[in-house]
Each structure stands twice: as structure tokens, then as C-alpha cells.
Amino acid sequence: MSNPLLRPSDPRFQKPDIRDPQGQNRFAEGPSQQNPADAGQDLFAAAASDEPRPFVPKYQVQQRSRPTILFILAGVGWGAAVVGAVSLAGLFDFGWLSPLLGVVPAGAAWLLAYEELKAIDAGVIAVEAREKSRHAYWLGLMGLILCLAVVAAMIYRGLHFLPNV
């Protein structure tokens, strides 16, 4: 043993016996559970009742929806993609920085809307916010894709494969 002061037969470290001196289990439910003929009669009685199950959790709304900030972030991403596309077309020379910076708010709108949709499914946010969150999700995703596409087109053009307009 690792501790020389402990002895294997020390009563302080022995599990108590669950049977009383008559040999009966002290923690048994009662006489109806010990009779095997009575055990199967009411086995499914709780499932047949119409009352709601007591173990199903019911949540109250804990958080508010934030569609305004999600739409603003997605709109900034779309705006940056449009500015980058105008710059790519050669109408104005704003450079490649605008669509590259637009990736951050568009991606943030997409990820925050995704987390909000998960919170709506969990019951933390009211169900009425689902449509706005879904719109913000898709606007953020499309803004992210557009910003990345404009950046990729600028890189491709910068490699002199596309003719200057």
C-alpha cells in the first residue's frame, strides 16, 4: 500500500453494508416492488397520461435580438464590395483596401446571425426574430462572398492577366 498507516481492515475505510441484520435491503422501495407479479402492472402508466412531462425544460426569453447591428454590418460589407467593384471597373481608383476591409464586417454579420439563429432554436431569443436573423445571415454571407470575389479579381488583375479597362 502507498500509505503505511492505513490498514486494509480499518473500519473507517470500509463501505457500509446496505442490508439490515435480517438480510433485507434498507433502500428498497417497499413490498409492492419486491413482488415480481406486481412490478409489470403500472409500468407504462406515466407514458399513457396526457399531462406534460415534468422534466421537459421551459425557457423564458433571456436575450433580445439585435437585427439592427447585423443589418448595419452586412450593409457595410455590401458597400465595401460595391466600392471595390467600382474600383475594379476603373471608374474610380479607390484601391483594393475597401473590399479587403469589408470582409471583417460582412463575416461578423454572418457569424453573429448564425449564433443568433442557434440561440433562437434553443429558446433564448424570441422566435419572432428568426426572419430578420435569417435575412441578416444571408446578407452577411453574400457580402462576405462578394468582398472575397472582388479581392480575388483585383489580385488576378494585378497579376496582369486581365487587360486594363
Your description of this structure?
- The chain is mainly alpha-helical and 165 residues long.
- The chain has a domain at 67-158.
- Helices cover 55% and strands 0% of the residues.
- It contains six helices and no strands.
- The chain has helices at residues 31-34, 36-39, 45-48, 67-89, 97-122, 130-158.
- α4 (67-89) runs antiparallel to α5 (97-122) and α4 (67-89) packs parallel to α6.
- The chain is elongated.
- It starts with 30 loop residues before the first helix and ends in a 7-residue tail after the last helix.
Shape: elongated
Q: Determine the structural class based on helices, strands and strand pairing.
A: mainly alpha
Head-to-tail CA distance between termini: 85 Å
Overall mean pLDDT: 80
**How many DSSP H or I helices?**
6
Secondary-structure element order, as H and E? Answer: HHHHHH
Helix content: 40-55%
Oligomeric category: single chain
Would you count the extended β strands for me? 0
Main beta sheet strand tally, sense and closure: none
Uncertain residue segments: none
Kindly estimate the percentage of residues that lie in beta strands according to DSSP.
Answer: under 5%
Radius of gyration: 33 Å
